[in-house]
Design a protein that fits this description.
The protein is mainly alpha-helical and 175 residues long. The protein has one domain. It contains six helices and no strands. It has helices at residues 2-24, 27-44, 49-72, 88-123, 138-167, 171-174. α1 packs antiparallel against α3 and α4 (88-123) packs antiparallel against α5 (138-167). The protein is elongated. The two termini are 23 Å apart.
């Protein structure tokens, strides 16, 4: 069972590690586009719709590819102020409950609707509503689906990792 859980979690974590790194590599380009847009707009009184939309697209790449990465590295906001005082087993039980009751249903629902949004957008060849805007808006919608699926998969990896904690013998059982 341990080997199965380890074999389930490791490839998912590897995938999210790569996606998170790829998403973070977009940040320098995003910063350049934002600075360029600000300089053009406020320095020269000249704005480009293409740059504004590119900001949104680059931001979407970063956020969506880093969702699973952030969860993997526990870099997300936690609301449980008591967590640090709990034993590893109690934390594992709470994490499993949270994943099963909240994360998985939420991500499955969002993935379902985002896939529908993408397929519709693809079918009509959706682009920007602005004449000079960027084409292929459906790619951003596909990215939303991919990011949510990465988060869903990381939730499955978290289930496996926390189950491994629960499979460890208790300290009292070791003596």
């Amino acid at each position: 069972m341990r080997r199965f859980l380890q074999g389930l979690a490791s490839p998912i974590e590897w995938l999210n590690e790569g996606a998170g790194i790829a998403g973070s590599l977009v940040l320098p380009f995003l910063m350049l586009v934002v600075v360029g847009n600000v300089v053009l707009r406020y320095g020269f009184g000249f704005g480009l719709v293409e740059l504004e939309e590119l900001q949104w697209h680059l931001n979407a790449i970063t956020v969506m590819l880093c969702l699973g990465y952030a969860y993997r590295h526990d870099a997300h906001v936690r609301v449980d102020v008591l967590r640090e005082r709990w034993s590893p087993r109690r934390r594992a039980w709470i994490e499993i409950a949270g994943v099963l009751l909240f994360l998985l249903p939420f991500t499955i629902g969002i993935a379902w609707f985002s896939w529908g949004s993408f397929t519709y957008s693809w079918s009509i060849g959706e682009g920007s509503p602005m004449p000079s805007g960027l084409p292929a808006r459906y790619l951003v919608k596909l990215l939303m689906f991919v990011g949510i699926v990465l988060l869903l998969l990381q939730g499955i990896a978290a289930l496996a990792r926390n189950a491994l904690i629960l499979l460890e013998p208790r300290k009292a059982d070791r003596s």
